[in-house]
Design brief:
Largest sheet of chain A: 4 strands, mixed
Oligomer: homodimer
Largest interface: A-B, 33 and 32 residues
Number of strands of chain A: 6
Radius of gyration of chain A: 16 Å
Shape of chain A: globular
Structural class of chain A: alpha+beta
Number of helices of chain A: 5
Strand content of chain A: 15-25%
Strand order of the largest sheet of chain A: 4-3-6-5
Distance between the termini of chain A: 43 Å
Helix content of chain A: 25-40%
DNA sequence: ATGGGTGCAAAGGATTTGCAACATT
DNA sequence: AATGTTGCAAATCCTTTGCACCCAT
């Protein structure tokens, strides 16, 4: 149980650093993101936490994850045409999407674009860069 | 009218090069993509062409654009969390998404990743790379 | 008691599916 | 005739919205 308290401390710290007021739900969702690197969807976060927080609603998960991404406390990933997913790791790295199974994988060794401060291109203010690769993952190649 | 015939010839040629059997609908949709660089959504393609092809259905536009992207005749862009859009220009270039108005803009001068042949990373077959920038466009900054 | 946070139910919207009609070879 | 293409209607699924309740300050 002390493990859990520590995790939640880290989550709370992260929220405060990003200017987000911690609530029970927000801390648990951030804790989930900080301990699961599976690029979860709203549904996955919801169904993983709804037992722990009995009253949790999907709406709150939607609101919270959106809030996180607006405060750069998490990354919103739109690589999957069907649904959005989130990443607790906000350091620049490449995401790979498997068109067969929908899985999202981190490519840590590929060079990812690094966001410079105050970038403006042709008058447009840029504040996020993401590099997406798409293809067929190792598992899906094996089974087909 | 001869202009139109020329356009459609180019569209037909492109379809054949990509191994897609040309039909009236497919040629018109490809022609639309090859003459409009606005990153249209399914709805935009549909409502632009439904007067010209009276019987056109949204289903066909969905099917056709998906087919195009599978055959690399067009690019499916998932930068907008709410809807997919398409680009007839398949040369590597960066896409910018305005979070305010949802517009997608090409950044032709930014260096974009170029897809090498037969790329495999950690066993995963990569066959597409896209670099997305997000922020607030020049117009939306002006009005806020 | 005030303001933000939460959650339910309903609405909205994009996309897919099943199937019948149609066109083309 | 056979095969692939189209299009309608319905279904599905993700996400947002409106509103009421609740909690903490």
């Amino acid at each position: 149980m002390s493990r859990n308290i520590n995790h939640n401390d880290a989550a709370t710290k992260r929220l405060l650093e990003c200017g987000i007021k911690p609530s029970v739900q927000r801390v648990e969702i951030m804790n989930y993101l900080m301990t699961h690197f599976t690029h979860p969807t709203v549904e996955e976060v919801y169904s993983s936490l709804c037992h722990k927080i009995q009253t949790l609603s999907r709406t709150t998960v939607y609101n919270t994850l959106r809030l996180f991404s607006e405060h750069k406390a998490a990354l919103m990933i739109t690589i999957d045409e069907h649904r959005v997913c989130y990443d607790g790791d906000t350091h620049p790295h490449v995401h790979f999407y498997c068109k067969e199974c929908g899985k999202v994988i981190d490519f840590m060794n590929e060079s990812a674009p690094v966001m410079p401060a105050n970038l403006e291109i042709e008058g447009n203010r840029v504040d996020e860069m993401q590099l997406y690769y798409k293809g067929v993952c190792a598992d899906c190649q094996r089974f087909n």
